[in-house]
UniProtKB/TrEMBL annotation:
Pfam family, one: UstYa
Region listing for Disordered, in residue ranges: 1-30
InterPro entries referenced in this protein's UniProt entry, alphabetically: UstYa-like
Keyword Transmembrane helix: yes
Name recorded for this polypeptide: Uncharacterized protein
Entry keyword set: Membrane, Transmembrane, Transmembrane helix
Pathway where this protein functions: Mycotoxin biosynthesis
Domain of life according to the entry: Eukaryota
Protein's organism: Somion occarium
Organism lineage string: Eukaryota, Fungi, Dikarya, Basidiomycota, Agaricomycotina
Amino acid sequence: MPDTERYSLLPSNDSGHTDDKTDNDTSLLNAPAIDPRRQHRLLYWIIVAIQSFIILLLVIKLWSNKCGCGVSSQILYSPAQSVLEYLPITFSMGVGHQATVYQGDPSDEVDKAWADLYNDFGISKIPESQARLLPNKTSAIPGEDNYVVALSVFHQLHCLNLIRRSLRPEHYADPETGAIGGIAPEDLPEHLNHCVDNIRQSIMCSADISVIVWKWNDAENTAFPRMDTVHSCRNFNKIVDWAKAHRSGDFNMSVPIKPNV
C-alpha cells in the first residue's frame, strides 16, 4: 500500500455527512481543561460577595432601628421624623403611691401639668420644601413662606384633657356660659364624641404591644394584672423640643391664603 495513502472516518449515512455526535464528542475531547485554581478563586469571591451583602443588610437594619427611620417605624413622611428616638419606659399603675401629677382633684398643679404637654407649641410651621413631602396638603401661613401643621400627639392630648375637665364640670365650666375649654354646652357632646373616637383611632394606630403581666397577691389570694411594666416608647421630650423650635405663634386664620402646596 502506498505511503501516501491516508485513512478517514467512514460516513454515517449515504449522504456523506459525518456523525454529529462524533463531531461533538471530538470537540469535547479537544476542549481546554478548566484550571482548578480559577474555580477556587471564583468560588472565593462569590462567598465574599454574599457575606458582604448580608453584613450590609444587618448594618442597614441596625441603623434603621437606632434612628427610628425604618419603614417599620414611619412609612409616611413627617417633618419631625428626624428626632424619633425609642426609650424603655416603665408605666405607672396610676393608683395609690403610683398616682401621677396628671391625676387627682382639679388644682393649679394638675392643670399646669396638662397644659405643659401641648399648650403654646401644639401648632407648628414648616417650610414649603417640607410641606410638599406631606401625604396631605396643608395651608400657608399668611404673610410667610411657611405652612401650618400640628403633630397628632398634641391634638390627642388636647382631646384627653378636654375629657378630663368635662368629668368635673362643677370646677371647669364657665359660671356664666357653662362652656368648658371654650366649647359651648350644646356643642360639647359632639366634641367629646369626636375626641373619644380620635383617641381610639390613635391607640389602635399605635398598637402598643408591650406586655401586661400578672402577679400573685398573697393578701387578696389572687393574681392581679400589673401595668407598671416596661414599654418601648418614643422619646416624647425630643418631639416636644422639635415642636417648640417650630411653633407657629398666632396668625390670622381668616385671611385669604395662597393655594395649598
